[in-house]
Design goal:
Layout lengths: L1 H11 L10 E5 L6 E4 L4 E3 L12 H20 L2 E2 L8 E4 L4 E3 L6 E2 L19 H4 L6 H17 L9 H10 L14 H10 L11 H7 L1
Antiparallel strand pairs: 1-2, 3-5, 4-7, 5-6
Helix pairs in contact: 2-4, 2-7
Amino acid sequence: YRRVMRNEALLAGRLRHPHIVGVYDADGEASPPYIVLEYIEGAPLSRFTKSDRLLPPAQVLDICYKVCSAMEHAHEHGLVHRDIKPANLMLQTNGDVKLTDFGMALATEGDVTQIGGIVGSPQYMSPEQVREEPCTWRSDMFSLGVVVYELLTGRRPFEGESDYSTLFKITNDHPILPSTLRPGLPEQVDKVLMRAMAKDPQARFQRWMDFAESL
């Protein structure tokens, strides 16, 4: 716990962005150790992943646009989040969104001690995370594509009966097109999400804002 908290304080503490939860203070040597985060009035997006509670598609795409902006800022500071999922995205009462929980983040430069091994939540991992290959910002893009797919359809694109079968599907299967699961969803959304969730990291969008602007 101390290591995860220290990781978040050191890495997320570098970031200043309207769509990233601020880190104000931390002390890993205190008893108990603590971290002070910006207070967010709202709910995690995991509350809006069921078929009877889905947000309007336009709102979901707006949320994704804002998260892309936040992730580009993190990328510019050499960070890979590695745990993008609905529970780590807070929808504020004013309709804005905040990305939180950098406890599993990876610094692509510097001397911060890294948390190794398979890191992240199985349903939202990228193929390279599953294979324990080096992760870049494109891994976060894959995860965000999974999140947007779920927010639009109420279903995850890769869902197995166990974590192992889910990880197998991530590396081998292609998801059902989201427009076939939610009537009225534009087919152009299919193309954007399928590219964001391409198995090959190099086949994904070349910049975060390319993803955002395509939406």
